[in-house]
Amino acid sequence: MGLKSSPVLFHWLSRLPSRNFSTSRALLATKPVTMRDALNQAQDEEMQKDDRVFIMGEEVAQYDGAYKVTRGLWKKYGDKRVIDTPITEMGFSGLAVGAAMAGLRPICEFMTYNFALQAIDHVVNSAAKAFYMSAGLINVPIVFRGPNGASAGVAAQHSQCFAAWYSQCPGLKVVMPYTSEDAKGLLKSAIRDPDPVVVLEDELLYGLPFPMSDEALSPDFLVPIGKAKIEREGRHVTLVCAGRGNEHALGAAKILAGKGVECEIINLRSIRPLDFDTIARSIAKTHHLVTVEQGWPHCGIGAEICARVMESPSFFELDAPAWRVTGVDVPMPYSRTLEAMALPAPADVVAAVSAVLGNKISAVSSQ
Amino acid sequence: MNYVSDKMALKTGACVLRLNALRNAIRLLSTHTRPEVAQNNTKYAEFPGAKAPYVTEMKFLNESSYDPIPIYRVMDNNGNVLDIREEPRIDTEELKKMYKTMVQINQLDKILYESQRQGRISFYMTNYGEEGIHVGTTAALSPRDLIFCQYREVGVFLHRGVTITELINQCYGNHEDPGKGRQMPVHYGDKHRNLATISSPLATQMPQAVGAAYAFKRQPNNDRCVVCFFGDGAASEGDAFSAFNFAATLDCPVVLLCRNNGYAISTPTSEQYRGDGIAARGPALGIRTVRVDGTDTLAVYNAVQQARDYAIANNKPVLIEAMSYRVGHHSTSDDSTAYRSVEEIQKWTKDESPLQKFKLYLEAKGLWNPEEEKAMVKESRDTVVRTMQEAEKKKLPHWKEMFEDVYYDMPPRIQKQMKQMEEHLKKYPDKYPIDRYQSE
């Protein structure tokens, strides 16, 4: 654990009308809910449903969580089920693994995934492998969750995406919600899952309102782990996106639509298991592939998807080499302008799509 | 633990075994007469893991089995020295410098905290209530001693001679920032002044400090120690235990200095740990330990001075627990009135203020008066405001800096990118605000 800073941007994001719900709900049958509230709702509902579920982490109780994702839960469920811990990620994730082995269903909140590096032994060596190593006797139904990836203005030690790290590990499931619906449905599925699930949230999305349908607002709503969602249909190019990558892709799709290019956007939702079927079907339709993620390119999610395409009949469907849009291969700069440039933006996606469609990869890759 | 470290553990294990065998051999040769190693009716056990008397009465120990570790102090709240033999001999100029640094910390905190609120910098952390620990510690050390800070120790930097300009340049990340604008505000560092750069993840500095002390120890005629700051919350991290254990077992000249300020963000020490604080862990791990009143600058000075001498002379660690109170919020991301009362904060702002105590001490000695105080506060404040305004106007680091320092030797791929950037800028000089950046 480190500075536990929520940056300036977080403050003004949190001031966005997060609770200013639309009044035209009856007409639209959807209601904007922030990702923070959706995650909160998921935990609340699952705690209500199953008294084995409990939350532990730093500042999750009285303080309502460093990013207020556990707001109100301590008041409702008390000290026994919302537990503030001493500052030791290694300690409380180990403890959570033990509690899961003994039949409870812990939700382990990391103040940010940057601090979870301290606990990665328990996630990778204990939680992920216990079922296999115990010959199927001991499963570890546990949820590790917290903000992952770049925030704003908090520099290299607080701004990195761990999706590729965790998803490399057999035994773990890794999900990355983009919308409030994803967040609620995936977290609920994760809590009910018999295996350890790593839920990678995004601090910059916490305060953003996303429309949620009545169905998604109901306590029975689940999003299956391992299924991608077509966020937007199109026929010219497939954009496979992880987490906030969807935001950039959707932004790019709008611009490209003006130029007559229709993008198909696949919101991966789960990084492991990876829904390759949905990707393959889309490639068979569009014959062009671009991946979008926030993390580093080297051995990243995009690299994995490209490799799977190479190893499958999808390769023959491609009319041009695939292209990855990723975070830049550098430790995150503190400078605001450099930080913005180190992260993917819609313009990068537009450039990548144009290059792939125009078969001009060499022009882009020389940059 | 991976394979390599397993192997290392085996090696060290073998080494320890060999040493123990040697020790036993020596003991066999030399202790024929010691009654406790008599063959029969042994009263003193000699297990490898514990040498202790045997008893027939079972007794569990708990925290109330011991008296709490007392808190050493030199002054009372009015700055009166309680026992004249304990008054440190610090020359007049140094005493005044110490107080000035404390005032300067306050003014720096006040203005930079506000500047964060105004959106001029992204983050800040204040030091209120802990100024005495910073200054007392630094004054008692040699400038050659290496200090690892946690993040709430700006007074250490100031008293070591880091200028207000350098500190503010860091917070503003301009081209004069010694950290090249790469870190969040308050992540100061100064290799030449033997101040390790602050790292965000908590407690990582602790095993690192022990490692640095180990390196010092290996140098012939070593006269340097390492001082490592950490908080009551950081002490819960696994790294803290590893640091304690390695400091003791590797006999490292390191002073582990806990700033116990009562809170880790909102978590009070009553939820952070049980038992007699951080100090109680020292003797348990074989570390010489003292607990001091961290609001008493002279007590901190004495403790650090003695700890330093002992650590260097004996190649041993020392643990100091400096008790204080975090008067300010945790950081600019926190509003502490949500979890503690205003009355509680006020008590520590007034009666227990380290500045107040030290000022009264100086006044009683005739070294300080209200006029000087007034002038000093104004000067400190003006310096900060002026420096801040200058810092805002300074150019940003050279664009080439963004390619530097990820690898010791720049990889060809990055060299190529830099060259492309250079050509690009030559071609489109009017498209970039290049005049805002430092040029060659």
TrEMBL record, chain A:
The pyruvate dehydrogenase complex catalyzes the overall conversion of pyruvate to acetyl-CoA and CO2. GO terms for biological process: pyruvate decarboxylation to acetyl-CoA. GO terms for cellular component: mitochondrion. It comes from the Eukaryota. This is Pyruvate dehydrogenase E1 component subunit beta. The gene is LOC113496524. The lineage of its organism: Eukaryota, Metazoa, Ecdysozoa, Arthropoda, Hexapoda. One of its GO terms (molecular function) is metal ion binding. Transmembrane segments: none annotated. Its EC number is 1.2.4.1. Its cofactor is thiamine diphosphate. The keyword Mitochondrion applies.
TrEMBL record, chain B:
Its cofactor is thiamine diphosphate. It catalyses: N(6)-[(R)-lipoyl]-L-lysyl-[protein] + 3-methyl-2-oxobutanoate + H(+) = N(6)-[(R)-S(8)-2-methylpropanoyldihydrolipoyl]-L-lysyl-[protein] + CO2. It is an enzyme of class 1 (oxidoreductase). The keyword Transmembrane helix does not apply. Residues 99-398 form the Dehydrogenase E1 component domain. GO terms for molecular function: branched-chain 2-oxo acid dehydrogenase activity; metal ion binding. Keywords: Metal-binding, Mitochondrion, Oxidoreductase, Potassium, Thiamine pyrophosphate, Transit peptide. Gene3D superfamilies: 3.40.50.970. Its EC number is 1.2.4.4. It is found in: Mitochondrion matrix. InterPro entries: Alpha-ketoacid_DH_E1_comp, DH_E1, THDP-binding. GO terms for biological process: branched-chain amino acid catabolic process. It comes from the Eukaryota. GO terms for cellular component: mitochondrial matrix. The keyword Transport does not apply. The branched-chain alpha-keto dehydrogenase complex catalyzes the overall conversion of alpha-keto acids to acyl-CoA and CO(2). It contains multiple copies of three enzymatic components: branched-chain alpha-keto acid decarboxylase (E1), lipoamide acyltransferase (E2) and lipoamide dehydrogenase (E3). Belongs to the BCKDHA family. This is 2-oxoisovalerate dehydrogenase subunit alpha. It comes from Trichoplusia ni (Cabbage looper).
